Structures are given as C-alpha cells and as structure tokens.
Amino acid sequence: MGSEVTHFKVILHADMDAFFASVEQRDRPELRGRPVIVGGRSARGVVAAASYEARRFGVHSAMPTAEARKRCPEGVFLQGDMRRYQQESRRIFEIFSHYSPTVEALSIDEAFLDLTGNERLLGAPREVGERLRKEVFRETQLAVSVGIAPVKMVAKIASDEAKPNGLLEVKASEVRAFLDPLPVCRIWGVGPVAERKLHAFGFRTVGDLARAEVTHLKYFLGDWGIELQRLARGEDLREVEAYREPVSYGEENTFEKDISDGEALRSALRAHSEAVARRLRRDGVAARTVTLKVKLAKRTGPGQRGFPQLTRQRKLAEATSDGAVLYANLCSLLDVLSLREPVRLVGVSVSGLELEEREQLGLFSDDPTSQRRKKLNRTLDAIQDRFGRSSIARGASEAAKRAGLSTQIKRGEDEDPED
Predict the structure, then answer these.
(1) What is the pTM of this model?
(2) 207 and 94 inside one domain
(3) pLDDT averaged over every residue in the chain
C-alpha cells in the first residue's frame, strides 16, 4: 500500500507595519526617524498606531494617550487622517487580490489570504509572500509583514513575529515547536483576565496547555479548556472567508470630553443614526431592530470595563434604512434610561437585516410621508456621494468630538469617512 498523503492548507496573513504612522512618515519626510504616535491627542485618547521609533519607548496601540505622553514626551502626536488611510487600504487590498481570490479583511491594514492549491500557478508560499511584500512596497512605499502557516491563528502569530518588515513561514511539521514556548496570551481569545486564570491553574505557555491531560482541563476550565487546547496544538479549523453576510451595522465613539448636555448627546445620536442608515442604503438592506449603548463616565472598576454600560433595544414594526426613524427610536430609548450622570461613550447599532426591496413591500409602503423620506434620503446620498459627507446633513447632526480613531472596516462605508 502507498503511504497516505496529507494535504495541508496554506494561509498567508499580511499585516501592515505601524500603518497609520507609516503613512504619515511617508508623506511627511520631516517625521522620518522620529517617534510618531497617531490617535486621539486628548487625555482620554487612545493610541491607534505608533511608529517603531515610538515603540522603543514602550508605546503601543490601544495605550491611553496620556500614558504614551509620559513614556515618550518627545513624540509627535497626530490626530490622523482616516480618509487618507482608507484610500491607502483600498490600494493595498487591490494588491492582495492579485495573489488570491479569497481575501478575508480583519481590519483596514491586515488580511488573511488563502493560497491553498496555488503553488503550481504562483510558486512556493514563501516566494509568493516575498513577491507580495515587494509589490506592496513598490506601489505604496509602505512595509508589510507576512506570516504563512497551515492555520489562521499560527499565520497571524507568525506575521507578528516577523515584524517589522519581515516574513516567517511555519510549516505543518513545525507548528507545535513554534507554538509551545509562547505565552498563553498569544492564543486567540485569551485576554488579561483569562491569562490570569490560566496562570492560576499552572498554564503559562502554549505548550503547557497542549500537553495537559484532557480530564485536568475539563475539571478546571470546562469546554473552554478543551477549545484552548485544540488551538494550542495548532488545530484551527477556521476557513479564510472572503465575504460574510453582515448581521449588524453600528457606530460608536468615546467622547473627547464627558457629555452631560442632553442636546449634545442627541446630536451625536443623530449623526450616528444618519451614518448607519447611509451604510444600510449603500448595501441595499434595512434593519428591524435598533440598539442604544451608553457608557457612563464614572468609573466603578479597573480597565475599560470599569465604566458602567447601559443598553436598550427596540424591535421596529417595519425594517428601515431611514436615519430619521432610527434617530426617533434612539431618542425614545434614551428617554427610558433617564440619565442623571455624564456619558463617556454612546453607540448605535441595528440588526434584524432584510433586503431593502422587502421593506418597500410593507403595509405602509404607499404612505406619502414614507415616500417623501425615501426621496429625501436618495437626494442626500447623491449630494454626499458627489461633494462629500460633510457637504450636507439632516438637522443638527454634528457629533461631539471623538477621542480616537478606529481600524475597523465598516460595511457600506463610503469613500469620504469623517473619522
């Protein structure tokens, strides 16, 4: 009998190096070689990206700006230009598409590419990765780090290990040796709280989890422990998904200053409602459920979760993509909360999505007011498509100033972001 041949997947993870900061240094030569920190510049701001010069001072993404200023007082702190970053992101993802028809975007500066079965056409995985890196740099003058592995989690860790401006391939036979010495926090889904819990039970490295007795894991951690062990052994069955149907749309921001004024809060809700509604219309869908999220300013515990969070949800009689309808329901939900404290964050999300054609067949599809709103929305969309989102707005929909930037990809986002 012939020996059995096992075919492994080939997954590439591409991650731009200090993306926002690198764009700034590329476009502003005077910033090259200097510690550049992009994100919210206020005391409440959060670092969105730090150049490698800034990282030498211990500055990293998601760090509070106040802490970054203490660690790197000589740093150049920039608010950032989300429109420019998204333009660069589109160029980069166009390059990614040259190497695989299956590209899964994780954020505006990183993605998985499925290279499985492409070796005859494109060459060995490492060669493909190097060509991709060279093409990105040639076209954008920006560096990208690449990790290649048979599973997604390992490819992502490999790209992180390859930074800055490098490539690391972990073959199937090397996965366990690569993972074993890493700290348990490198496993997907293990944050600070979970890490402390694992340490308490004696699991400090990925190898500790991979070698643990199943009964031991089950006793201490339940089914979660079994799932962690599977990942620790490099058994990640998740596919690279080029496109997933959205289940919700949302907008939220942490305010640069706490909001106590009800009108200012409603103005932010209106801006979020219109932004969400515009994205729904661009994707041809409507939502049947609207959710309001409010985070209060008074801290009651440590970390980002230390601020009390309130949520209220309402199911609508008919699915809608009308910002005015969303706003009216959000204001009603806000009234239910009867807030007496300043607000740190407000968020708007919608779910229960339907194709917009179905919404037009509803009971009130011939209602004159509904038809006028649809016509108004189409007119607003056309004007904003041509002249930009800030060219016209419905009512006073200027949101309070945000504390920072986001790297998330938003479904239905246009090419004129205002972040």
Answers:
(1) 0.73
(2) no
(3) 85
